[in-house]
Design a protein that fits this description.
three-stranded antiparallel beta sheet, about 190 residues, five-stranded antiparallel beta sheet, elongated, binds calcium ion, 8 strands
């Protein structure tokens, strides 16, 4: 009886060993493979007037007086292949007194009031005519000094170009306090992935 039990136990252990080795039991199987797969990142690359990086100075207007106005249209292109949202702002704004004329001196201290007096308007100027017309909408309108907040200039698909105009105006209500004043600034455009 003991011998028979030992044989049964041995056979059971042997079957477990064979099953776990997989030698005895092979199921039908079939494998398919797709090769040549890859992941490639897209690109976002803003250019201005086909410059990359943007190296031009856009405004060097001199001898401005109340009533002076002008504009510049810049071509902003997404040279990448991924869509983005375009924004802009002024940075590094510095106001200096420049020269102080006799009538300006009569008003007291000359601390450089041009940036707080001068107005700019920014918009996507689709027909680049310097006017906010047709379906064009203003992205920013206010003083130079306050133009540091972000202007929303809409979307820019890969390979697409937007024409952005910046128009300046010194209101005729401005007086002698800006005589000889100098306002310097940088223009910054940013294209952000959407
Ligand atoms: Ca760029
Ligand atoms: Ca226009
Ligand atoms: Ca001055």
């Amino acid at each position: 009886m003991i011998k028979r039990r030992a044989i049964i136990a041995f056979l059971a252990l042997s079957m477990v060993a064979v099953m776990s080795s997989g030698v005895l039991y092979a199921y039908f199987n079939d494998t398919e493979t797709s090769s040549g797969n890859s992941f490639t990142a897209g690109t976002i690359d803003l250019t201005v007037d086909a410059q990359n990086p943007w190296a031009s100075t856009e405004f060097t207007a001199e001898n401005l007086v109340p009533g002076s106005t002008g504009f510049k249209t810049m071509l902003l292109t997404n040279a990448g292949n991924s869509p983005g949202t375009l924004s802009g702002r002024l940075t590094n704004i510095n106001n200096g007194p420049g020269s102080t004329s006799e009538p300006e001196a009569l008003l007291g201290t000359d601390s450089g009031e041009l940036g707080s007096s001068m107005m700019i308007t920014v918009w996507v100027d689709s027909n680049s005519n310097g006017l906010v017309d047709g379906t064009e909408t203003t992205a920013y309108s206010g003083t130079v000094n306050s133009a540091t907040t972000s202007w929303n200039l809409g979307s820019l698909a890969g390979g697409a170009t937007s024409k952005v105009s910046i128009k300046y105006l010194i209101p005729t209500s401005v007086g002698n306090e800006i005589q000889g004043d100098i306002c310097t600034f940088s223009i910054e455009y940013t294209l952000t992935q959407t």
